[in-house]
Amino acid sequence: xxxxxxxxxxxxxxxxxxxxxxxxxxxxxxxxxxxxxxxxxxxxxxxxxxxxxxxxxxxxxxxxxxxxxxxxxxxxxxxxxxxxxxxxxxxxxxxxxxxxxxxxxxxxxxxxxxxxxxxxxxxxxxxxxxxxxxxxxxxxxxxxxxxxxxxxxxxxxxxxxxxxxxxxxxxxxxxxxxxxxxxxxxxxxxxxxxxxxxxxxxxxxxxxxxxxxxxxxxxxxxxxxxxxxxxxxx
Length: 234
Hints:
DNA polymerase, domain 1, Rossmann fold, 36% helix
């Protein structure tokens, strides 16, 4: 059980609330096929949770393809606009969001995704995501100058909640990627890591979990009352 009562819950989106990492791979592979190669899981893992240009530089360096990062991003973005429409919820996401909202637990989103793509991803789930109100921070917002693993995005998301005297350690963060976990921990928040082992290698999970409080198999494994939150009713 957590020794600090949680007063707010902050969520990453890609791979945490929405099953979009597989869609990123689909878009990237669509472009990579013109170069006779595919996205491997080790490169994918290194790219996850990073800003688009940074991730693309890693991809180009690791694959050796002959294209500028900007051109690659432009080509992939065209595909993203279509594949992101297929985004599905991760197991347990809807149950947890509705539960927290029902009991008036403040919730916010902190995603490195650019807002235009975020809107496409949530289009089929707009009613659910409306429960976050305006408490949504995206990677291209004017208030964001540094992305994960820098903690800034979690500080901005926290401040949107406008909770007087809210301490960082009273914020619970859900993340799926290495850099996201580091970001939440760097913010001094309590982080629950839910890695997607379709893309992350178990051997790359450090013993200290980058400082995360716990590692769970999915959102379905989360027990709210262990963090001072109301228990599920079913």
